[in-house]
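Question:
Write out your own:
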Amino acid sequence: MIDFPGGQNGPPRGGGEPPWEPRVRRLEQVVDKILDRLTALERDVAVIKATFATKSDIAELKLEIADVKTRMAESKSAIIMWVVSAIFLAQSLPLIAKWIERYL
């Protein structure tokens, strides 16, 4: 049995507040705050689940990156070939012009 102030076996009589009421009120306030925080966490987790990348998304991205690297390497080779061809043609034009004058 619970010991109450004044040796009573129940809550105080005459409209007084039972001694556990302040503690219960405080616990109710704490529970309300915990529920608010839990709701916010649930909302955050829902956003994370909706927006974060999955393993398949990352694997797909890796494939795309590999494809871009391959195309860049091919483009670099094509650019080098064009530059070498342009230099060769620029160096050859005077010789070609002389041959045309000589044989035509």
About this structure: The chain has two domains: 19-52, 54-104. Residues 54-104 form one domain. The helical segments are 21-51, 55-103. The mean pLDDT is 87.
